[in-house]
Amino acid sequence: MYYCHSKGFAHRDLKPENLLLDANGTLKISDFGLSNLQQDVLLQTICGTPNYVAPEVLMERGYNGLSADIWSCGVVLYVMLAGRLPFEDRNMNILLGKIERGDYQMIRHISDPAKDLIARMLTVDPRKRISMEDVINHPWFQVDWNPRMLST
């Protein structure tokens, strides 16, 4: 996502179903059907998958697609670490209300840096939300993610 954002493109429908791994374990992002070039004007189209959409997208006042993508990445990270969605309800109005308020329960069994990153990505006010640059420089990402092969 950092690369896409560096070129000014907002995906606007980030969710696990649009994240693929190739044979080498490299993450690939798919389905750019809702993507848009983020220029100096706010985007207006309400789009995305409800459980992953940022609160500002729902409020119909315009939004920055890059910041909305960071929210969606925060939801994806939460799902990967918790095995469940942070915002869920069978009633769509209740679900959207939870998203607009940022009403979710933090995962208890994860590290403090992971909790901090999720909280910063799921900040309701997009002006206070962490930037993509700060996401990739966050302490949670400052580990050796290269898989180690065990000897047999």
Automatic annotation (TrEMBL):
PROSITE patterns: PROTEIN_KINASE_DOM, PROTEIN_KINASE_ST. Its EC number is 2.7.11.1. It is an enzyme of class 2 (transferase). The keyword Nucleus does not apply. It comes from the Eukaryota. Keywords: ATP-binding, Kinase, Nucleotide-binding, Serine/threonine-protein kinase, Transferase. The keyword Lipid biosynthesis does not apply. GO terms for biological process: signal transduction. Residues 1-141 form the Protein kinase domain. It catalyses: L-threonyl-[protein] + ATP = O-phospho-L-threonyl-[protein] + ADP + H(+); L-seryl-[protein] + ATP = O-phospho-L-seryl-[protein] + ADP + H(+). GO terms for molecular function: ATP binding; protein serine/threonine kinase activity. Pfam families: Pkinase (PF00069). This is non-specific serine/threonine protein kinase.
